[in-house]
Amino acid sequence: MTTFKRFTELPRELRDRIWRLAIRDDHPGVHIFGQYVTGRHRIQFCGGTSFDLVAPSWRRYFESLDEYHSDENISTYLLDSGLWTACHESRCIVEKHFKHSERQVTLRRPNDHQRSFSEKELSEMATSGYFGGTPLEIVTVFPHRDLFVLQHNDLDKIDWGCLGFEASLALPREGFSGVDHVGIEYDRAWGDGYCIDEDVNCTFLNACVEANYTIWFIDRYLKRKSQGPAFKEESDCSWKINAFYASDRKLLEIKDYDDLFKDWEYIGPMETEWYDHMHHSLSFVRQLRADLTDQYITNDCEAEKPCVIGLLGWAPL
């Protein structure tokens, strides 16, 4: 509206269509958060405040895919955050799209347990919050299908059990029971599967028992080959989702070594040959899976079953 001064003179139906076109595509999204340190603005939502999640630091931004633009926050929540505050019309459109009124029904009736949502309804329902100190920067997420990336400063200070509930931006009585997908960026200092840092390994072994969501390790140095076969995306149900869309790229699952060496390429720094670096993150994930299985079997049936873990590379949109 700042560049088209006669926007308000357009027919209402056309204005509504333009607003709807500004909303994110209907894909599982990617939402990036930082880990709380003193002085940072926590994310707040209706009825609560996150203890761990803050706006991501510019120092941790993913490298821009456009050489003429600086690095930026590629979170999906920024694509349509401005629609909440642009004007009354845009707010009405975005509230309707994200089914905000349906969520408000549950908030107004805390003692009514008769109304419950199916898994399909919950997967299509969004929640929202904002970063403290910046009330105009609205964050909208889909707890049961989006990927929530935590750019950590200290793995030992993450409350893995509560993280999923905080990231959902919802109260317990809304029925979301936390998020389904959490992302952690893989650090090559952790090891390559053959030699893993013992402290890091212990941290993730404990995390995978506490978590009730899939933990995805993200390797920003593994890029899908442009000439490779089309990636088969799964989205029938939450636990099958294998592709998540940020603003300029999508994060895609890497399952095995055949898939890795055939369809992916390593684009990171190289100390030796590319082959020596290519498999590190996948080997790390596979070894962690093996350790989790051994731990579960050793502790017999009384042990809590660990969460699912996976690996994500990326491809440009």
UniProtKB/TrEMBL annotation:
<dbReference type="InterPro" id="IPR045518">
    <property type="entry name" value="2EXR"/>
</dbReference>
<dbReference type="Pfam" id="PF20150">
    <property type="entry name" value="2EXR"/>
</dbReference>
<feature type="domain" description="2EXR">
    <location>
        <begin position="4"/>
        <end position="100"/>
    </location>
</feature>
<protein>
    <recommendedName>
        <fullName>2EXR domain-containing protein</fullName>
    </recommendedName>
</protein>
